Amino acid sequence: MKKTVPERKSMIDKDHASLSLVQQCILLSISRSSLYYRKMGLRSLLPGPHTSKPSQENPVYPYLLRGLEISHPNQVWATDITYIPMKNGFMYLMAIIDLYSRYVVHWSVSNSMEVEWVVI
Question: PROSITE patterns this protein is in (predicted)?
Answer without folding.
Answer: INTEGRASE (PS50994)
